[in-house]
Structure formats: structure tokens, C-alpha cells
Amino acid sequence: MATRGPRLEFAVGAFLVLALASLLVLAIASTNGRFGLSGDTYELTARFTQIGQLRPNAPVKIGGVTIGRVSKIDLDPVKFDSIVTLAIDERFSEIPIDTSAGILTGGLLGESYVGLQPGGDMEVFKPGEELVFTTPAVDLIQMVGKYMFSGGGDNAAPGDAQPAPAAPSAPEEGTTP
């Protein structure tokens, strides 16, 4: 058997180090910027009737820019609403008090996130306050199911107006009716 020199062993070792480094970069990139937020945050809450697939650590975004994370999801035992606690980065402390929140999905099958739509009020949120204007998550599977079983909107209910039958056309010249 031929002996392997130190060059080959060095090349294999360098290749493994590069492969592990690329996996580390991929792992950090797949966290979707989670490490881009500073450590100082303040909390806001939002109440939703339906949160869909929203999970803790989901991003909170304004205009596609991540400004925070979902820190906690609880259930209100009286109203049975979902209470979502948002940890917002301190750099974004000037969010208007009339801002609305919605649960959105990145793409057709992407992750759920909380999207904020800032209002125009001069007053801003203080830590611990609740966003009043919220829009629940849209359940795509339920929507597709309703569309499929409704016939795509072509089914007319009994008693609905039906189109009038076409009027008989006049016979062409030279033909007998």
C-alpha cells in the first residue's frame, strides 16, 4: 500500500474544516436574522382569535424588516383568544399606538410571522401595552376546502335568479320554418 503524505492529510483536513464552516454559516443564515437583534427588547401584546401556525420565536416585521420576535403565546381562559407577546427591539421604540397587527405567511407554505402596519398617531406604545387592531391568520386549507366543496361558485341556490333562456332566432331567408 502506498503511504499518504502530509500534503494529502492536510488537504483532507482543510476540506473538512471548510465543510463544517459552511454548515455553520448555513445554520446561522437559516435562523432568519435571529442573531441580528440587539439584546434589549420591550414587550407588547396582541390578542388574536386565530393564530394559525404561529410559533414562539417567529419574527415580528414591519415592511418586511424584522424588528422583534414572538416571545410567548398564551390562551385567555375567559374569552378563549390567543394572547401573543411580542419582544420588540429597543431600537424600534417609536411605534405609533394605532398600529395594526396581522398574522401573515411568507409565501404559500412559508413560516407564519406577525406583520405590523404602523398608523399615523403621534402617541407611541409604552412597554407592556396591547395592540388593539389585529387581524387573525387565514387558514388556507379551510379556504381551499370551502372553495372545492362549494363547486367553485357555480352552484346556484334554489330560488336564485337564473339567466333567461335565449330568444329563438329568426329563420334565415329561403328556409321554411
Please sum up the structure shown.
By secondary structure, the chain is of the alpha/beta class.
Q: What helical percentage do the residues reach?
A: 10-25%
Alpha-beta content class? alpha/beta
Identify the quaternary structure here: single chain
Give the strand line-up of the largest sheet.
7-1-4-3-2-6-5-8
Q: Cα distance, first to last residue?
A: 102 Å
Reading the helices and strands in chain order gives: HEEEEEEEEH
Proportion in β-strands? 25-35%
> What is the number of helical segments per DSSP (H or I, 4+ residues)?
2
Region (Disordered): 152-177
Domain Mce/MlaD: 41-119
Biased composition (Low complexity): 155-177
Pfam families: MlaD
Describe this entry's structure for a reader.
By secondary structure, the chain is of the alpha/beta class. Helix content is 19%, strand content 27%. The chain contains two helices and eight strands, in the order αββββββββα. Strands 7-1-4-3-2-6-5-8 form an eight-stranded mixed beta sheet, with no helix packed on it. β2 and β3 form a beta hairpin. The protein is extended and about 75 Å long. The relative contact order is 0.15.
